[in-house]
Amino acid sequence: MAPAAPTTAVGTRTVVSHLSRLRSPKGQADPLPHYRDLRELGPVLPTPWGGHLVTRHALVDSVLRSRKWRTTDSAWKERQDSDRWNGFAQQELSRTLQGLNSPHHTRHRRSIGNVFDRATLAGLHAVVAGTVDGLLDTLQDRVAEEGDADFGSLVGDQLPIEVIGSWLDLPRADYPKLLWLTHEHVVCQELLPTATALAGADRAAEGLRDYFTEVIRDRRAHPRDDVISGWLRTWDAMEEDREQADAAVFYLLMFLFVASVETTATLMPTMVHLLDRHRDQWRAVVADPDLAPAAVEEVLRYDPPIHMAGRVAARDTELGGVLIPKDAMVHLMIGSANHDPDHHRDPATFDIHRTGERISLHLAFGGGAHFCVGAALARQEATLLLRGLAERFPGLHVTAPPQYAQRVAFRRLTGMRVSTG
Fold first, then answer.
1. Of 202, 21, 23, 234, the residue nearest 108 (C-alpha)
2. Which helix (H) or strand (E) holds 45?
3. Whether residue 100 has pLDDT greater than 80
4. Which of 24, 147, 372, 396 is the one with CA 20 to 30 A from 192?
5. Residue 415, SS3 per DSSP
């Protein structure tokens, strides 16, 4: 295998320039031109910190599915001479499903089985539908009082936390605190987080640890016929050490909660925003709410909640003609891959009527062993919400452009006002 040609300073400066533009308000509002420019620069692009951006669908998909690539587990982070990877939030993340590699990932993943299977989703259907109705009542009342309302805070944030909180049997009074901790914690996964952001993520991780540790203590003392008690029974049968069993359930619980809330909270307002920008397609959904599932898939392709994921090479590996040394990181640009013209027909066009393209073609939920365990639940929530919006508020429209947090990896709408008529 021949090594890649030496990277030039100009090349890395160009990459950094595009990343800086992605972080700008204009880039957050429309990242697609910057993804196009990065794809044109090449499929695998160097960064000044020794990593590489991967811009093309075929390569991103291959990395997600291949055992040649591993997630950033605790052992890898310990080998890095950087505060970026050794904070409390990062260490906690390394012990969740997201941060585990085989065989540890296999064991933990099997312990929860197909967590959102058809039976579970059927049982949650009434919960999701009822929550949607209640949140849309609140939205309607707020718009009647003020003329418009913030869709993100009233609906986008609330739907996933209400559903996952109900499923886990958590007190509703705790939802505001948990929502805030979740939003703070996820920043540790950004591409280039500031020291201040990392410190905030560490504090949030400590808050989540305190909270969910107490939840597990309570379920130990007062077992119920609920999900968390069931996980405890499963791990008691797998692990002789009670503390180790509790730790395993803690990390499953924290990960599923945070992942379910953060990504879906962004998906909901993004969906409304895109359909508002394409009024003909919104009218099509209003006329035929059965188009909702297809519309949700196109939203996931066009502007997924997660635009970037990291992997590291298990050994020296060639990728797109570039030699990636063992332990080096690649940044998988999911947002760019979902707009790769080599894979999607007319990718810059938002089209809920796409034909001949399977659902699995977009990478919004990742792929391989780390495919999102909550994908089916997110789809159910988004679909039922969209049907509810189309049936109740055919005149729904955005009254002010959405505001975004300054992120590259995890999209986050911080505000988007709408009117219902």
1. 234
2. strand 44-46
3. yes
4. 372
5. strand
Q: Rounded to whole angstroms, how far apart are CA atoms 3 and 58?
A: 21
pTM over 0.85: yes
Specify the pLDDT at position 9: 38
Provide the CA 242 distance to its chain's centre, in angstroms.
31
Pairing of strands 413-415, 403-404: antiparallel
Angle, vertex CA 362, rays to CA 39 and CA 24, nearest 5: 50
Q: What is the per-residue pLDDT across 253-302, written as a single tens digit (0 to 9) for each?
A: 999 999 999 999 999 999 999 999 999 999 999 999 999 999 999 999 99
Residue 78 CB: number of other CB atoms within 10 A?
11
> Is residue 140 a contact partner of residue 420, using CB atoms and an 8 Å limit?
yes
**How many helical (H) and strand (E) elements, i.e. helices and strands, does the chain have?**
18, 12
Tokens of 235: 């791990």
Contact criterion met (CB below 8 Å) for 164 and 256 = yes
Distance between CA 85 and CA 26 in Å, rounded? 29
Main-chain phi, psi angles of 344, to 5 degrees: -120, 135
3-state class of 225 per DSSP? coil
Is 6's pLDDT higher than 50?
Answer: no
Residue 1 buriedness (CB in 10 A; 0-12 / 13-18 / 19+) = exposed
DSSP 8: P
Upper half-sphere CA count for residue 36 (Cβ side, 13 Å): 9
DSSP string, 320-380: TTEEEPTT-EEEE-HHHHTT-TTTSSSTTS--TT--S--GGGS-TT--GGG--TTHHHHHH
- Cα separation, 394 vs 421, whole angstroms: 7
Q: Where are the beta strands (DSSP E) in 172-321?
A: 309-313, 317-319
Residue with tokens 């499953």: 252
Q: Residue range 395-405: average pLDDT?
A: 94
What is the pLDDT, as a whole number, of residue 196? 95
Average confidence (pLDDT) over 186-194: 92
Q: What's the CA gap between 18 and 96, in Å, rounded?
A: 32
The per-residue pLDDT for 357 is 59
Residue 8: count other Cβ atoms within 10 Å of its Cβ: 10
Quote the pLDDT of residue 11.
73
